[in-house]
Specification:
The protein is an alpha/beta fold. The chain has 11 helices and 8 strands. α5 packs across α6. The radius of gyration is 18 Å and the shape is globular.
């Protein structure tokens, strides 16, 4: 089985619609794909309706969090009940803060003599939940940087960067507990992706494990061999599952669907632990 547990669609900051994404996942030879848009489940219905025969959909979301020490992190949540009220309320708070935060970042860029406009960013975001990748794409359009990845540096949009602005984010310990209460399973995304900004400290990861974190993403395009090995060592010490995923965003990033995958036994354990929702088998929609 080929299993990719981290992808994004136009419901957040990917360039493929949910329907396009599942069709491309099947064409790429995947057996299982998780749709994990940022802080939203809005793409799940369309992905389910278009799900090709032979492909299984895992519903999920990537939750925006920040530790008490100020480090940003992303928490992948799988197979939770999307109607659970407390978790739904927190997702709405994060989403509602995205537009004011993006406008603040546009204002900072203009103070840095970058001629970006809110109208440009809104056009790029379309119906998706506006976020930093849309602003990064605007910088690429303007020729300020050569790629979306190059925009995520201290010079521009990285945490603490010159054009960075804060938004409402969940406390990660609370987020783990909320997802668990909604019957879901949590995996810490790309924890050692140093180019994105400060990494989550190992003591903070240990606290997440104590709070009920299920796993940690090891195989990811932003982890080199040393980082992947360290994540596996840490997972072994803390009793966490390890996953591999593409973090696919369509044409917005260079990663390919299925570039990294999750072991079928790990996937089986994630499904076994989940009680809020179940994987959706494709029937040729």
């Amino acid at each position: 089985m080929r299993i990719d547990l981290h992808t994004h669609s136009t419901a957040s900051d990917g360039t493929d619609t949910p329907a396009e994404l599942v069709r491309k996942a099947a064409a790429a030879g995947l057996d299982v794909v998780a749709l994990t848009d940022h802080d939203t489940v809005r793409g799940h219905a369309a992905a389910t309706a278009a799900l090709p025969e032979g492909l299984t959909l895992v519903t999920g979301a990537e939750l925006s969090c920040r530790t008490a020490g100020g480090t940003g992190l992303h928490l992948l949540a799988y197979l939770f009940d999307p109607a659970e009220p407390e978790l739904e309320r927190e997702r709405e708070l994060v989403r509602d803060d995205r537009v004011p935060r993006a406008k603040a970042m546009v204002a900072k860029l203009r103070e840095l003599d970058v001629p970006v406009t809110w109208e440009q960013v809104a056009r790029i975001a379309g119906d998706g939940s506006v976020g930093r990748p849309h602003i990064a794409a605007a910088l690429v359009e303007l020729g300020v940087v050569g790629s979306v990845s190059e925009a995520f540096t201290p010079d521009w949009l990285a945490d603490g960067g010159r054009a960075y602005a804060e938004k409402h984010e969940l406390d990660p310990l609370a987020a783990v507990r909320l997802v668990r209460a909604a019957g879901g399973v949590t995996v810490l995304a790309h924890p050692l992706a140093a180019r994105r900004g400060p990494c989550v400290r190992e003591d903070e990861i240990a606290a997440l494990a104590e709070a009920g974190l299920d796993g940690i993403e090891a195989d990811h395009m932003d982890h080199d061999a040393t980082a992947r090995a360290r994540v596996r060592d840490l997972a072994g010490d803390l009793g966490l599952l390890t996953t591999g995923s593409s973090d696919y965003h369509g044409s917005r990033k260079s990663c390919r669907l299925g570039e990294y995958t999750t072991d079928p036994e790990v996937y089986g354990e994630i499904v076994r632990r989940a009680t809020g929702a179940f994987p959706v088998p494709g029937t040729g929609g």
